[in-house]
Amino acid sequence: MSTNKAAEASIELAGLIDHTVLKPDASRADVARHCDEALEHGFASVCVNGVHAGFVAQRLKNSAVMTCAVLGFPLGASGAESKALEAAALVKAGADELDMVLDIGALREGDLARVEADIRAVREACHGKVLKVILETALLNDAQKETACRIAAEVGADFVKTSTGFSTGGATIDDVKLMRRIVGDKLGVKASGGIRDAQTAVAMVEAGANRIGASASVAIVSGASDAPAGY
């Protein structure tokens, strides 16, 4: 591949990446650096814990980079009412996109009404902002993944997302293909968790992902081989 084509491919990939800083010990300086990197490289968003949402929204103001915040994170077990309140607060703080963890326990035990109510509460509370539903695929069988995708689509989510990056596994090619097969072209698919190089990121896109969640975003677009571990 020529230098120009490689650069174009890097820019195109950058526009699909949610530049992520979700570690519990992340400082405001860490978050500021991620914002500056996102502006420099043209990432889709900066994805943070809710405590940083307002700061990120201000730092990215008047740019094309969006503010993405997680909720019900990372366990998904805070309940629909709490998640709805959290969603409303994040929107008020300036979040453009919300990544929620669904009620994993309810899904695994087959309480689909609770799963639907959980997602619907957030959908209604986020007032049209982009909603991504995190399935935590490492904890689910294929039938449960398919069910979660269908419920997310029925409730009006904008994306389904593989993983939090804090469980027993991250994104896999097979899971991305499954999710894309179920949602078709109606929803986006976000691959996240364990994506630390361009080759893996491109493979996820080829499998059907149209958004990538990564903390190693700069390494991914620069082709570096020393990407840091972790989300």
Automatic annotation (TrEMBL):
Entry GO CC: cytoplasm
InterPro entries in the cross-refs: Aldolase_TIM, DeoC, DeoC/FbaB/LacD_aldolase, DeoC_typeI
Enzyme Commission no: 4.1.2.4
Keyword Secreted: no
Pfam families recorded: DeoC
Active site: D99, K161, K190
Transmembrane segments: none
Biochemical pathway: Carbohydrate degradation; 2-deoxy-D-ribose 1-phosphate degradation; D-glyceraldehyde 3-phosphate and acetaldehyde from 2-deoxy-alpha-D-ribose 1-phosphate: step 2/2
The reaction(s) this protein catalyses: 2-deoxy-D-ribose 5-phosphate = D-glyceraldehyde 3-phosphate + acetaldehyde
GO molecular function: deoxyribose-phosphate aldolase activity
Source organism superkingdom: Bacteria
Main location: cytoplasm
Swiss-Prot/TrEMBL GO biological process terms: 2-deoxyribose 1-phosphate catabolic process; carbohydrate catabolic process; deoxyribonucleotide catabolic process
Keywords, ordered alphabetically: Cytoplasm, Lyase, Schiff base
NCBIfam families linked to this entry: deoC
Function: Catalyzes a reversible aldol reaction between acetaldehyde and D-glyceraldehyde 3-phosphate to generate 2-deoxy-D-ribose 5-phosphate.
Family: Belongs to the DeoC/FbaB aldolase family. DeoC type 1 subfamily.
Descriptive protein name: Deoxyribose-phosphate aldolase
